[in-house]
Amino acid sequence: MDHSPLIIAGGGLVGLAAAIMLSDRFERIDIFEKREEPIFPPSMQARSLQLVISARGWRTLEAIGLSQDVLDHSLKLNGRMRHHADGADIEPYSVHGHEINCISRNTLYQLLTQRAEALPNVHIHYDSVVQDVFFEQKAIDVMHYGHKKYWKYDLLIGADGVRSKVTYHLNRNGTLSHQLERNNYREIRITENLWERDKFHYWHSPKAMIGAFPVHEGGFSLFLVHQNEHMLELLVQKDDSAFEALFPGVKDAVPDIRERLKHSKGGFLGSVNAQNWHHADNVVIMGDAAHAMLPFMGQGLNTGLEDLWSLSQIIDKEGITSPELIQSFTSTRRVQAGAIRRISENQFRYLTGKFTDRDYAIKHLADHHLINHDLPTTYMGCAFSLDPFAEILEREEKLYASFTEEQIAEELVRMGKATDDR
Ligand SMILES: Cc1cc2nc3c(=O)[nH]c(=O)nc-3n(C[C@H](O)[C@H](O)[C@H](O)COP(=O)(O)OP(=O)(O)OC[C@H]3O[C@@H](n4cnc5c(N)ncnc54)[C@H](O)[C@@H]3O)c2cc1C
Predict the structure, then answer these.
(1) How far apart are the C-alpha atoms of 248 and 84, rounded to whole Å?
(2) Is the pLDDT of residue 269 over 90?
(3) Domain spans, the chain
(4) Is the Cα dihedral 133, 134, 140, 142 positive or negative?
């Protein structure tokens, strides 16, 4: 039987960052990763080729000494450009000129893997699937190249993503739920520099949305999110008028886009809600294992890196000396994860055109209020500050609730919507 002071289930982005961050606190760290090789497998590429790193993620990358490398491989974006039939509108990410950093998932993976592999006390075991957790024995079963091995741990971190085995075992009593959206996600790489490279570009409608991130190495990565029932009309049937009407100009820029999207690997969008995030003082989950969310705020990884930051603060100050310490970590993080999940769902409704006229009217009023008072928007709070997500959500909800029916009615009229569609 083997033993490790710290076992990390899952060598994804959060698992690798955790090993680097905690490498001087543990004599030995073992990561078990089910992929067969360190390289990023094409089968996972339905998960966004580009990642936005914001303030929270940045703080952790700085702490593990990777921020400069990430910066060297990132592009800075200053806003979104919404394309429509009459042209395009620019929505700056921040009225204070803040920019977000965008890096390819593969590059970030490689940077983290290289750094973790260079640490003498970090051992990454590939082709190693964590299958079972035995909480009383403080042990896991790992299937490694077809052989089962039993490993004991002092601390187990579950960073094994959206279908986490650790999360499953912690929540066997029905305290885990997965929510799948009726939406499909597809992404392709375009080598031409078709649009402005310091913006995220998007086209949206209630049926589907296209987004395009510029890629550091050149070109764009373009994704389509569509409701499952619109697949035929958008990508399969010969007549491309529906696609043209929803996404003006895209097909002119990329003539074979429908064909390429049709043949790209599709993925589903959804979120994870787990009640139990820890066991005693020796098992804890983080990253997507704890809180996978809809990706429209670009905060999934950033939140996972913030989990890690918070845990490392506790380990630094007190060590993990009692179940109460882990309990306080997980209860705080669960509240923050719940808030960013809500914010991300709202952003999903907004970006995919699912807002009602009334929702848009309230959002316009809120945006005007924030600009007039030089206050941060919800996006700015999430992306550029370290303010707790729960505070940001509360601020937004309070502001939205503060508008009177008269103000909303006036805004609807200004928008050319005579009636309230509540
Ligand atoms: C379309 C899309 C766009 C996104 N854009 C952004 C963005 O811009 N910014 C952002 O912050 N976040 C973004 N996210 C979210 C981000 O991708 C995730 O939050 C992040 O990858 C989570 O990292 P993780 O390490 O927790 O999980 P993962 O990256 O899923 O890693 C989990 C690892 O565990 C391994 N594993 C799984 N099961 C086992 C097992 N039983 N045994 C051993 N190993 C196992 C897997 O092989 C994997 O390597 C986006 C997500 C999507 C879907």
Answers:
(1) 6
(2) no
(3) 2-76+105-176+272-347, 179-268, 355-414
(4) negative
Structure tokens at 234: 């958008």
In angstroms, the Cα distances linking 385 to 83, 302, 390, 391 are 28, 12, 13, 12
CA of 313 from ligand 1 middle (Å) equals: 23
Helices and strands per DSSP (H, E), number in the chain: 16, 18
* Edge-to-edge strands, sheet with 75-77: 50-53, 100-104, 75-77
342 CA → ligand 1 middle, Å: 19
Q: Going by CATH, does the domain composed of 2-76+105-176+272-347 fall within 3.40.50.2020?
A: no
Residue 47 predicted with pLDDT over 90: no
Write out residues with Cβ below 6 Å of ligand 1. Answer: 9-15, 32-35, 47-48, 51-52, 57, 129-130, 159-162, 165, 185, 287-289, 295, 298-302, 304
Give the residue among 392, 401, 399 at the shortest CA–CA distance from 344: 392
Mean pLDDT, rounded, for 185-207: 92
User: Nearest C-alpha to atom 53 of ligand 1 is from which residue?
Assistant: 47
CA distance 293 to 272: 7
Q: How open is the CA angle 375-378-384, to the nearest 5 degrees? A: 80
Cβ(155)–Cβ(5) below 8 Å: yes
Tens digit of each residue's pLDDT (9 = 90 or more) over 375-417: 999 999 999 999 999 999 999 999 999 999 999 999 999 988 7
Summarize the chain as % helix, strand, coil (round to 5).
40, 25, 30
Helix (H, G, I), strand (E, B) or coil at 18: helix
With H, G, I as helix, E, B as strand and everything else as coil, classify residue 63.
helix
The C-alpha angle with vertex 285 and arms to 74 and 63, in degrees rounded to 5, equals 40
pLDDT tier for residue 299 given thresholds of 50, 70 and 90: very high
Rounded distance between C-alpha atoms, residue 113 and residue 261, angstroms: 30
Collapsed DSSP state (helix, strand, coil) of residue 87: strand
At 330, list the tokens.
């997980």
- What distance in angstroms lies between residue 362's CA and the mean position of ligand 1's atoms? 34
At 418, the pLDDT band (50, 70, 90 cuts) reads: low
